[in-house]
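One record is kept unedited as follows:
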Amino acid sequence: MKSELHVPSDLSFIHIVENWLLGCLQLHLGESVDWTKQSSLLRLVLIEAYSNAVRHAHKEKLNLPILLRLELKDRDISIEIWDHGEGFDLSTYFPPNPLDRQEGGYGWLIMNRLMDKVEYKLQVNGANCLKLETTLTELFPDVLRH
């Protein structure tokens, strides 16, 4: 299953983004997943990624939409967030130390802790792509067999 959503660079669309992701997954996976646990993790990661694109990548380009892509293969989920900002240089990122009371930088840490794979590509055909991948572990194996 594949789905795409073009959404404005506006944080008031967060609920639409959440509903799109969870609605698509629930439609295709039904009751085979413990949604109380999985939805919280997926919502947190998606909200962090989308809000970063809005607040940082598109902070001066509010008229440009953000493209979200979802792909589900069996239990494997891939979420892509595409923006048109200048991009983020990962070589300048250092994980926050709570003792330093750092205000930023926690989003990247959260995404990497909650997802199996996080990949960021700068300027692919004029856009940046944050790709988040994970495998849902609480599926009943018989549900997905055809």
Observations:
- The first helix runs from residue 14 to 29.
- The beta strands are 2-7, 66-73, 76-83, 117-124, 127-135.
- The chain has one domain: 2-144.
